[in-house]
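Lab meeting notes turned into a lecture example. A postdoc, R.K., suggested we walk through two folding results consecutively so the class can see how the record format repeats. The first protein's sequence and structure tokens come next.
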Amino acid sequence: GRLDHLLANVALLASDGLAGVAVRWLAGNDLVIPVRDEVTVEARARALVSLIPIGGPARGVSTSGLRWELDDEDLDPTSSRTVSNQFLGNRATVAVRDGVVVVIIPDAIAGT
């Protein structure tokens, strides 16, 4: 329930120390997945999903299976551009060429 702990935990997910580890964090009913290369995520159709660059810009971000897809885009951590996208079906792919993006699926558990 503390914002400082939440932000510290998200930063930890993006740390270099976890770069080789497949991590999925369940924060309440929300699922948080750091992406450094490519990840396929599953959720119910029309579920919300946000992509947030952590620790600096994320470069070469591409997605498939989302309402608003990205094609080799650069994401700035000071922008809200990739908040509240939506799954088209039950599966989406997020790829990052350089940097770290956290994929957040609100109510991922409640919706299953």
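The second example is placed directly after the first for contrast:
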Amino acid sequence: MKRSFAYMASSMVRLSAKCVAALPVAFVSAAFVATVMLSACGGSSKRSEEKEAAMEETVPDTLHAVTLYGPTSYFNYRGEEMGFDYENLRQFADEEGMVLDLKVAPSMQALLKQVSSGEAQLAAYPVPKIEEYSKLVKHCGPKEITWQVLVQPAGKHRISDVTELVGKTIYVEKDSKYHYRIKNLNDELGGGIDIVPISRDTLITEDLIEMVDRGEIPLTIVDSDIAELNKSYFPRLDIGMKVSLEQYSSWAVGNDCDSLAARLDRWEKRRDSSPMQKAIYKKYFEQSKTIPLVEDEKALRGLRLRKGGRLSPYDDIFKRHSSTAGYDWELLAAIGYNESRFDNRIVSWAGARGVMQLMPVTARAVGIDISQIDNPDVNIMGAAKLVKRLDEALSKKVTDKNERLKFVLAAYNSGLGHILDAIALAGKYGLDDTVWQGNVSEAALMKSRPQYYNDPVVKNGYFRGRETVDFVDKVMRTYSAFKSVNHSK
């Protein structure tokens, strides 16, 4: 499935009094503002072609937008703001010469309220085109068509028709829209589908997708955009079979912000064929999110670890910078191994680079010239500085250094903010906020669910906690393997 974009033409462009409030004084005279306000919200006076043209050229100096956290909309990854909707919003604001003021709402209802009341001008999030919402806002800009799909292993035994689901077992989140849909479909087919609802705070739809990939469960159902995003993590999956009708959605503005709506529709027509739009789409829905690495155990065996032997081409560099990190050089090597398999040429989907997969924003934060980020010595030095900073930042939260190491690794993978959020969640929900395994790691997994990433104690929203928990486990296993051959002696 690909996100599908449609277009709307606007025959008349009007500017509401609400939107005029944001216009810079330099662009709008008092007389012009008065004229606009008289004709903005349903006024019947006829404008001249000159005034219409002038209004079309006038834009707010600041765009007040609101969105929701989510894997395809907006999130923070290793200190970088990211998301398909976010990057498109950023592109629109830049092209229109507006400063972006972005806020995050805790729910669809809150988002719609902010836009319909004028607190925000634009909802930069796919708002379903249903009668209830269309009364509150005007749909415009980026359009999207999604549907629910069956997630199954690819191959000759794939299911290609819903009637073939009879006799099959399907796992879904309990009481989710997927659960309701498969129950309805089961009724339509006269029964026979074995539906297994799963209810657990730390298990989400993305986890079920991964479980299908691993062969732990046979089938699940998700929205097509979520399926497409996750196929970039798990390319062996088949997501081609629809199990629901199409759902239309788009961004939205207040019902009286016709000028902004028209600008968004014109921009949408331009962007659909633009190279930048194609690059953004590819980044989130096509480009692999995993480095093509062999399985850990097999790769570790391939290193042929032996006492006194070299672990990598960069052992001397790891040793030189280990004092900066404040940990054994084998730890830096274990991070590098799991980040890149010691391949300095790798660039991740998010832009992380080099042996240690440093993000550009991280490199700048630790004083590295971006032009030098691909230099292995500089890259490893930057990682060592980052480990030191994270260790210092977490030292008051987790006083035991051996235990703190797991927190440092988690923060290295996800960004410090998400781990501080997980610590706060652990404390709030009765977990030990000084212990990683089974406590803060569980809280990190909880941050993939709306009720937790929108919790008041959480400051950094959604993140894909499963990746971070797995990263900590893998690095600790690798570190132990490297240490077992006494390289630090």
